[in-house]
Automatic annotation (TrEMBL):
This is DUF5777 domain-containing protein. The lineage of its organism: Bacteria, Pseudomonadati, Bacteroidota, Chitinophagia, Chitinophagales. Residues 1-21 form the signal peptide. Residues 48-291 form the DUF5777 domain. InterPro entries: DUF5777. It comes from the Bacteria. Coiled coil: none annotated. The keyword Iron-sulfur does not apply. Keywords: Signal. The keyword Signal applies.
Amino acid sequence: MQRTYLFLFSFLMLQCMQLQAQDSSLLRLLDDSLNADSRQPQEVTGTFKATQLINLPTTESPAKKTLQFLIMHRFGKLNEGAYALFGLDNATIRFGLDYGLTDRLSIGIGRSTLDKALDGSLKYKLLQQTEHSIPISVSLYELVNHYTLRYSDKPYLNARYRTSYVSQLLIARKFSRSLSLELAPSWIHMNLVPTPDDKNDVFVLSAGGRWKFTKRMSLDAEYNYLLPNQAVSSNITRSLSFGVSIETGGHVFQLVVTNAAGMAAPYYLAKNTGSWGNGDIYFGFNISRSFNWNRK
């Protein structure tokens, strides 16, 4: 009988030791897993809530399998006076569709009433800002613009002369929940310029940002500095724009004032002639709506 008790006691002790060893192993695995997760850099999201700051594209893109519909609308100039209801009788508009092929790569098309221009674009996120690791987000934006406005007195204006190309490097940082800033050096190649003194290749340095003053509202601003001595035959001015953005679920609604009528890149970067000092101020709005097919 004593042998039986001794055997049972030894068996129970052995089982307890095995269970204790298993618990220790599981705790070590859990600790290792938690430590590994804590070492993973956390992505900084929501640098901007829309793919457009005002006219300037942001580093943001539609997520994978997400389609964004964008309406950009500008009324006429305020200095057109009461007869044109201070510009409200006239308007230019651009429609755009952007689709996320992946979370980092998107493609887009657009159509503007100004010059009846068509555009196609591609945006790829090269870097994503993370906490304590990568300080900035960087996206490459490529755009081709082709205008189709008819000129009966210029039969030589075939597709080659009507096309221009834009490359932009979008560099942004979200400094806090309220403040995000962006820099964007741009290169524009225009196949046709007004005179031989004008450059076919021009460079622009853009800067902008947003300040979020409530949970769903922000102030936005951007300035596009066309470097001197590039477009000399025309009275080209640099565009300056301000906006107020309102986030409403899947919509971002934005009220803007700007001295640029054009909303596609070559127009507001290198072809703008509006002047704030002369009252060439355009009131307008941007509306973006996203449709997500990635939900299960």
